[in-house]
From TrEMBL:
Belongs to the inositol monophosphatase superfamily. InterPro entries: IMPase (IPR033942), Inositol_monoP_metal-BS (IPR020583), Inositol_monophosphatase-like (IPR000760). The keyword Ribosomal protein does not apply. This is Inositol-1-monophosphatase. It comes from Nocardiopsis sinuspersici. Signal peptide: none annotated. It catalyses: a myo-inositol phosphate + H2O = myo-inositol + phosphate.
């Protein structure tokens, strides 16, 4: 496949992600009022609602109707292939409602995230934040956009002037250690923000609402789509010790600020549970 053909295919994957994320976001937005907890997952604080499941069902249906040879990995329903084969080399990574607790309590910071991987590499993404009226999209090597406009993250600031976003796990023992880490971070930065949605945090970083971000315990569906948006907006997204982003830790920021935050977090064991 030529470079031009590959770019065109990535753009078509992005366009599909945007269309489906738009429809899914509208479904979830309309269903937010009066929503209640349907079940819990890893702990009593890790909730799922009927709209998480309904939104993921819609996303799966739309993606596989257009591309039945693809696979879909979703937070709620696991992995499946439309025709049973999954031989196209494309896997969709889906978080139907990232920030479910925010969603449950009527807050605005939740998102629908859809990423397309080709042979394990995220190449296209859409992140819809419906209550903010924001659609983020990206193509690997093709840049990021917010509501159709080119998105470029602001320049780095020194660590001591950085507004840093983070999040906490659902298990109490993990939260205790994360609080210890936070006690060491707060005196070294401008301030901390805890928004409640990794996807909204990462795309907000790309649009300049915060300067840097770190969090332990994320899954691939939490960072795949917003991570590509952030990366294409000029940010570095990864883990400690040169590792890629993963469940141990995700760090994001302009490269020089990323390095400073990494140096602060590494001796604190931010990628462990203490």
């Amino acid at each position: 496949m030529s470079t031009t053909d590959a770019a065109s295919d990535r753009e078509s994957l992005r366009d599909l992600a945007v269309r489906v994320a738009t429809e899914a976001g509208e479904l979830a937005r309309e269903g937010q009022a009066g929503i209640t907890v349907l079940d819990t997952k890893s702990s009593p604080t890790d909730v799922v609602t009927k709209m998480d499941q309904a939104t993921e069902d819609l996303i799966r249906t739309r993606l596989l109707a257009e591309r039945p040879g693809d696979a879909v990995l979703g937070e709620e329903g696991g992995e499946e292939a439309g025709d049973g084969s999954g031989t196209s080399g494309v896997r969709w990574v889906v978080d139907p409602i990232d920030g479910t607790v925010n969603y449950l309590y009527g807050h605005h910071d939740w998102a629908v995230s859809i990423a397309a991987e080709v042979d394990g590499v995220v190449v296209a993404a859409a992140v819809n934040v419906p209550r903010r009226g924001e659609m983020y999209e990206a193509v690997l090597g093709g840049g990021a956009r917010l509501n159709g406009r080119t998105l470029q993250a602001p320049p780095a600031v020194p660590l001591e002037q950085a507004l840093v976003a983070t999040g906490f796990g659902y298990r109490s023992e993990r939260r205790v250690h994360q609080a210890r880490v936070l006690l060491e971070v707060i005196p070294r930065v401008r301030d901390i923000r805890r928004g409640g949605s990794a996807a909204v945090d990462l795309v907000g970083l790309a649009s300049g609402r915060v300067n840097a971000y770190y969090e332990r315990g994320l899954h691939v569906w939490d960072w795949a789509a917003p991570g590509l948006v952030a990366g294409e907006a000029g940010l570095r997204v990864g883990g400690l010790h040169g590792r890629p982003p993963g469940e141990d830790l995700v760090i994001a920021g302009r490269p020089e600020l990323y390095e400073a935050l990494q140096e602060l977090l590494e001796p604190l064991g931010a990628d462990t549970d203490g």
